[in-house]
Amino acid sequence: MPDLSSQHEDVFEEGGLQKRQDELLAITRELFDDQDLITLRLILNNQHESDLADLLAQLPEDDQPLAFDLIAAPLAANTLSEIKTPTLLTLLEYLEDRLLSRYIEYMDPDDATDLLGKLPEDRMAAVMDLLADDTTETVEGLLPHADDTGGGIMTSRLVTLREEMTVEDAIQHLREWANEDEVFYLYVVDAEQHLIGTVPLRRLLLAPNTTRIHQLTQPDPLSVRPDMDQEEVAHIFADYNLLALPVVDQAGVLMGQITVDDIVDVIQDEATEDIYEMAAMSSEELEERSVVGVVKRRLPWLMVCLAGTLLSGGVIDVFSDSLKNMNLLVLFIPSIMAMGGNSGIQTSTVTVRNMAIGHIQAGSTFGVVLRELRIACMMGVLLGLLVYVVARSWIGDAIVAACVGTAMYAAIVLSAALGALVPIFFDKLGIDPAVASGPLITTLNDGLSLLLYFSISILFLTAWRPGFL
C-alpha cells in the first residue's frame, strides 16, 4: 500500500498529482472494502483539502457522506469550500443543520457565504440561527452581494491600521491578527474606515519601531466597488499582478478584500461558463441532479439549431430543380457547409476570447473585424484554389469546379464575418458573446453557405451554359 500518511510531497514530477490522487482513491476503496475505517480516518486527515475534494467527487454517492464523516471538523470545513457541485449538493443534503453550522464557523467569511447561498432560504435561515453572533453579522454583510461580483467573492477578514499608530503598535496588531489568516496587504483607514492607503509588509518590517504609519503609507491604492463583475476584477488582478485588492463602497469605506486564491477560482468558473455557453449549454447545469432538469436546459437551444437546419433544407428545396440538372453540385455540399461552419467557429472563438481578456475595447472593433476578414480572404483564396483543383480532377468539369472554388471562398469569408460580428453584436445587447459561438454560428453558417453555393452555381452555369435552367 503506498504511503499517503503525509499531505506533503518533496517534488511533484510530471503526472505526479494525478498519480497521487489515483493512489488515494485506490486506498480509500480498499479500506472501505475491508471496513478499516480507523486507518482510513488517519489517512484522510493527513491529506490536503483539495485532494479530499477530488476524492469525494470520485467516490460513489452513497460512500461520500461516510468518508466525509471521517474528516476532522477544521479540515472538513476547508474541504467543503473546495468541493464542486454536484458532490457538494449531496453532502449538504446529508449534513444536519447543527453540524453544518459548526463547519461554517471554521470557514473564511466568503466561503461561508457561498455555501449558505446554495441552501434553500428556509434552511439557510435555520443554519444561520445556529451560528455565533459575530459570524452571523459577517455573513449577513456579504450575502446581499451577487455571487459573480466583487462583493460576492470578497472576504471581510483583513488587517487595518491607523495613521497615528507606530510601527511597533502595528506589528503587535499584526501578530494578534495573523493567527487567523494569511496577510497580503496592510490597509490604512481613518476613524470612519475610509481607505487611505496601503503599507507594504516589507516596508513595515524594515522601518524603526517609532516610525508613524502615515510616513509609510502609499496613498490612493487600487480598489474596486462591490458591484463590479468578477471577470473584470480578474482582469485587474492579471494586469497589475496583485495578491489582494480592497473593496470599497461609494463613500470610500473599506468593506473587505479580494484575494488571489478566489481569483483563481473565478478564472476557472468563467472559463467553464464560456465553454458551456459556446456549446449552447448553461453552466447552471452542473447543479442539476435530474436528467429531466438537464434536458430542460439543453432543449431550447437545440430547438433553435433544429430550426436552423430546417433553413438549410429549405434552401435545398428552393434550388431542387437546378440540382436535378446538375447533380454534380451535390457532391460538394458537405464540404461547403463544413468549411463555412469551421471558419465561423474559429473566428467567433478568437473574438469571444479577445473580448473576455479585454483585447477588444471601445473603438477597436472595426480593426478586429477587418483583421479577421483579411485572414479569411487569404484562407478563402487558398482553400478555394485547392477545392477547385480537387473538383477539376475529380469530375472533369471546369465550370462546376469554378462554382465550387468560388463558393468555398465566399462561404469562408462570410462565415468569418459573422463569427466576428455576431459576438460583438451580442455584447452590445448585453448578452454573453459566448452564446454566439458553437451551434448557433455553425447552424447559421450552414444555411447561408448553401445559399451562396447554389446562387453562385446558378449564376456561373447560366452565364457559361445557356439553357441550363
Give the beta-strand count: 6
Helix content: 55-70%
**Basic shape:** elongated
Residue-averaged pLDDT, rounded?
85
Number of distinct helices? 22
Secondary-structure content class: mainly alpha
Q: Write down the Rg.
A: 30 Å
User: Uncertain segments of ≥5 residues (pLDDT<50)?
Assistant: 5-9
**Percent of residues in beta strands?**
5-15%
Question: Secondary structure elements and their pairing?
Answer:
Elements: H1 16-34, H2 37-44, H3 49-58, H4 64-69, H5 73-82, H6 87-94, H7 97-106, H8 109-117, H9 121-129, H10 133-142, H11 150-153, E1 159-162, H12 167-177, E2 186-189, E3 195-199, H13 201-206, H14 213-216, E4 218-219, H15 230-240, E5 244-248, E6 254-259, H16 260-278, H17 291-318, H18 320-325, H19 333-356, H20 365-395, H21 398-428, H22 439-464
Helix pairs in contact: 3-5, 5-7, 7-9, 8-10, 15-16, 17-22, 19-21, 19-22, 20-21, 21-22
Describe the structure.
This protein is mainly α and about 475 residues long. The chain folds into three domains: about 15-150, MgtE N-terminal fold (Alpha Horseshoe), CATH 1.25.60; about 160-260, CBS-domain (Roll); about 285-465, SLC41 divalent cation transporters, integral membrane domain (Tetracycline Repressor, domain 2). It has 22 helices and six strands. Helix 15 crosses helix 16 (about 260-280), helix 17 packs parallel to helix 22 and helix 20 packs antiparallel against helix 21 (about 400-430). The protein is elongated, with a radius of gyration of 30 Å. Residues about 5-10 have low confidence and may be disordered.
